[in-house]
Amino acid sequence: KLFMQPILANMWATLQPILNILSTDHVCVVGAAFGWGVEAVVAETGATVVGIDISDYIATASSTEESELRAEVTTAGLDPDTGRGLEVMSFIYDSQPRSSVIVLQNDAASGPQRKAIRTALGGNWPSVVVYENIVDDTWTDTDIINARNAGNGFGGQQRLIWVYKQTAIRTYQNLFDLLPAGSEVISTDGQVYLT
Question: What is the spatial order of strands in the sheet that 26-30 belongs to?
Answer without folding.
Answer: 103-105, 48-53, 26-30, 128-132, 159-164, 183-187, 193-194
